[in-house]
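Training component of the fellowship. As part of building independent skills, the fellow (R.M.) carried out the full modelling exercise for a liganded target. The chosen ligand was PPS. The inputs are recorded below so that the supervisory panel can assess the work.
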Amino acid sequence: MSLPNLAPIPELYVSHESAQKLKVEAGELVSWDLTPRQICDLELLMNGGFNPLKGFLSEADYDGVVENMRLADGSLWPMPITLDVSEKFADGIAPGQDIALRDQEGVILAILSVTDKWVPNKAREAEKVFGADDLAHPAVNYLHNVAGPVYLGGPITGIQQPVHYDFKARRDTPNELRAYFRKLGWRKIVAFQTRNPLHRAHQELTFRAAKEAEANLLIHPVVGMTKPGDVDHFTRVRCYEAVLDKYPQSTTTMSLLNLAMRMAGPREAVWHGLIRANHGVTHFIVGRDHAGPGKNSQGVDFYGPYDAQELFKQYEDEIGVTMVDFKHMVYVQEKASYFPANEVPEGCTVLDISGTELRRRLREGLEIPEWFSFPEVVTELRRTSPPRAKQGFTVFFTGLSGSGKSTIANALMVKLMEMGGRPVTLLDGDVVRKHLSSELGFSKEHRDINIKRIGYVASEITKNGGIAICAPIAPYTSTRRAVREMIEAYGAFVEVHVATPIEECEKRDRKGLYKLAREGKIKEFTGISDPYEAPANPELAVNTVDVDVDHCAHQVILKLEAMGLIKA
Ligand code: PPS
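Fellow's submitted model of the complex:
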């Protein structure tokens, strides 16, 4: 392989003086408030990380990328980088128009000169890019349930980088990394992509990869958006810094990449390779199940364990980066060292701790052996993830009106308060509607806003170590899932379906609402004239017919105990 061309790559920023002028002019333009994912994408567009893209994809580029991983001009590009917006916003925009792109505080980061506006076929995008139109895939769920329905495309004029207040010294643009490699005279650089804390096996593997390729090592973790439920990037970076000391200083460096991952396995590996090429690296480690999203809704892995390596190999020349394939490293007890799984000496004992097992040990406060990880890393992880019995959590009741949610929730609250230890807050449907959502009605849009407000408050309570008990109807699966994701970032989400049949709820009709709904005097009434999507896999389902409230609340307590959230 030839020596790397470490000359600067094109960025989309204008000069400082022009930026000042443009910023004032852009104040007059219609503006779009970027979502967190769009901010990540925009940063890498502007700083050349997504070179050769010059902006958000046009419709022709998008079609090519979705169909065969190529832009309209034939260049390899596997991931649709699109600006999704709401229908309402799109209605006011016409091709030929410039719009200002703002961050979440309202700062103008760039101008998009809109050339294309279209309604994408999201099912096709899911099938082609992610391999299946299955909501168990986080990016497919994002596509259908978070991303707006209309895409805008066109070139970007960059005004300023998104501001980061954390780990500033560890963030580098592609050109800053290129300059660093040039300065140090590094000719071969192998990059390691990760969204997880580094344990000894990773250290061993990166070490070996660098040795094999006779290259310097770039630890290049993603700190933009990763898979819901991952260890937050603040904790991870503290862990990486602890591990960095274990590498020879002169051969290894670390830089943080503000990428929003899509977990697209094989396509994602090719994309990661192109992004790393832009950052000046020559080699890239592709592991087993690279950027894998886990299991689909049938419980089967979305991609084969080596699909990513195969696709990368196929496009290696065009990517311009050599693949170093990941050997799954395991600890061999008798040798007290790590070996690639396929090179373990015969008759030896192999020790391994999976990600799931590690999370269990953290959750339950169990031992994590030194052969597995560095004590500094374990300390950091324990600081962020105390045992479950000390973390906050949310119990989320869902069910029809009159199913008994509020009554069971109240009983549960009292039982938990009797146990003590953590503050308990009840967010009952009716109470929330009085205090938080008094202006809302019962359309799908309003119900979603209501549930997301409850989810937000519950996530803050969970984050701060308390117990939130929610008891709204919450009739829509996708909204409940969004709330789950919000909360699982901080603690457990325990969904309890109060599965009282509609006939029973109507028979009880404690508030007289079913009668009014039948007479058409209340519109959009759940179960009568509005849908209720029952949860497919709640943590617990309780039926209240012929069962007393105390027993139902007790079933929840038993579930919480079984999950390690409370101690008997
Ligand atoms: S939702 O769908 O989750 O936002 O509903 P929620 O906030 O839990 O509010 C439900 C309570 O509002 C009363 N109510 C109605 N429910 C359903 N559909 C319609 N159209 C409606 N109109 C008023 C009802 O008392 C619900 O309380 P619960 O405790 O569920 O009986």
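The panel noted the following from the submitted structure. The chain has three domains: 16-158, 168-257+263-330, 388-562. The mean pLDDT is 95.
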